[in-house]
Amino acid sequence: MDFLSNKEIFLGIFIVAIILINVSLFSALRKNKSSSTTQILKISFTTVKNPFKKENEQMEELSHLINQLQEKNTNKSNNEEN
Length: 82
Description:
Layout: H1 2-30, H2 34-49, H3 53-81
């Protein structure tokens, strides 16, 4: 008998927890937080499509800066020879 009442208590707590989660999600949607949710989803999907986008942009910038330095060094050495 005690075991059955423990199951019922656990089931009741579980049901109340599910209802509270649903109510909090519904209230978050009603408070216009859905726009921020869609922004988060868009960013997530963009990241999934190209996970190394940020790193690739940083590598391209580094490559560009290195090329500029090499050109300056080449120009400087050519000027010293003349």
